Every structure is written in C-alpha cells, then in structure tokens.
TrEMBL record:
PANTHER family: 30S RIBOSOMAL PROTEIN S12 FAMILY MEMBER. Keywords: Ribonucleoprotein, Ribosomal protein. The keyword Transmembrane does not apply. SUPFAM superfamilies: Nucleic acid-binding proteins (SSF50249). Belongs to the universal ribosomal protein uS12 family. It comes from Gulo gulo (Wolverine). The keyword Ribosomal protein applies. GO terms for cellular component: cytosolic ribosome; ribonucleoprotein complex; rough endoplasmic reticulum. InterPro entries: NA-bd_OB-fold, Ribosomal_uS12. This is Small ribosomal subunit protein uS12. One of its GO terms (biological process) is translation. It is found in: Rough endoplasmic reticulum.
Length: 76
C-alpha cells in the first residue's frame, strides 16, 4: 500500500505509505498529494523499512474524509 511520489521542490522520487484499506483507489496519476512524516523523529516504522512519509491529502481532499464518504472527489 505504497505509492511513488515525485517532489515538486527538488524532483526527487520517494515512496509514501497510504493508510487505510481502499485509500489507494482514490489516488490517480498526476494528483497532488500532501505528505507527513511517518515515524518518530524522521525514522522509519519498524515493520515498513525505508518508508519515511505517509499520504494525508489527495487533490486537496483529506484521505480520511474520502474513505468515510464525507467528501467526494470530482472526476475529470
């Protein structure tokens, strides 16, 4: 349940964790995502090595609100 993201700031490609079941269905190619730190003090979580970030928002909508059905992302 991880996605590859290219950062706008410096063009680096990183891997980010997508949290709940079904959240991966809300991400599409070329969407802007908001990332947050995943582990404590910039460290990786023990069972997921080399993953330092998690996805919080997709296309300016909270991922948790999309999963719960409170928000609906417009389809283009």
């Amino acid at each position: 349940k991880c996605i590859r993201v290219r950062l706008i700031k410096n063009g680096k490609k990183i891997t980010a964790f997508v949290r709940n079941d079904g959240c991966l269905n809300f991400t599409e190619g070329n969407n802007e995502v908001l990332l947050a730190g995943f582990g404590c003090k910039g460290q990786a979580v023990s069972d997921i090595p080399r993953i330092y970030f998690k996805v919080i928002k997709v296309a300016s909508f909270s991922l948790l609100a999309l999963v719960k059905g409170k928000k609906e992302r417009p389809r283009l």
